[in-house]
Design brief:
four-stranded antiparallel β-sheet, single chain, elongated, 205 residues, six-stranded parallel β-sheet, 5 helices, alpha/beta, Rossmann fold
Length: 205
């Protein structure tokens, strides 16, 4: 039986790179895949772009509220990708919970493996709704590790605006925002709390 997988990790844990390598492995064996990315993730536009420079074109840009299951099947039929062996989803945390439900149906009712890659929590340590639903439904959950600046394992995603750590704001802000240039880094718990203290904000207690 096909399964729904969720591979999560903090920023810079190689999620997009792993997706691209997985897609290549399927391609090498002549197995059809579709790559999905939420339209909310404007970075790379219609490409999945890994930090090392690898790229893969997106087949389905999922818009909020869209019937994702139907979109996936329509594209597969249009491109003659039958049988479809796997659906690979980048930045899955940005999908609606209802769209995660549809991915579950693709796996369980349509017999197509679905492998999702994404973040667990935002820069405020709150779980993304899409990620929360994946934790509830996924057959397999795997953590992809990455390192903090201090050498410990990173757990938290931190937002910087023009190089300054911020702990308040909208849940989603990608690249250039109205308030300045947005970037992200991954920190371990102690380093995260250190930056909080310096900013005079205490999200954790």
């Amino acid at each position: 039986m096909a399964k729904l997988h969720f591979k999560y990790g903090a920023m810079n844990s190689g999620k997009s790179d792993t997706l691209i390598k997985t897609a290549y492995n399927y391609d090498e064996r002549g197995l059809a895949t579709l790559t999905v990315k939420p339209a909310l993730d404007t970075k790379g536009e219609e490409w999945v772009v890994a930090r090392g420079g690898a790229r893969r074109r997106v087949d389905v840009l999922a818009r909020p509220g869209e019937a994702l299951r139907e979109h996936v099947h329509a594209v597969a039929d249009e491109r003659g990708l039958r049988p479809l062996h796997a659906v690979l989803v980048d930045e899955a945390q940005f999908l609606d919970p209802a769209q995660i439900d549809q991915l579950f149906r693709i796996a369980k009712q349509d017999g197509i493996s679905v492998i999702c890659y994404g973040l667990r929590t935002d820069f405020r340590t709150a779980t993304f709704p899409g990620a929360q639903r994946l934790f509830e439904l996924a057959d397999n959950v795997e953590k992809l590790p990455t390192m903090c600046r201090c050498g410990s394992q990173a757990e938290f995603n931190c937002r910087l605006v023009d190089g300054r750590y911020v702990f308040e704001g909208d849940q989603v802000a990608i690249d250039e925002a109205r308030t300045g240039t947005v970037t992200y880094v991954s920190l371990c718990g102690p380093c995260f709390m250190q930056e909080q203290a310096q900013a005079g904000i205490h999200v954790l207690g």
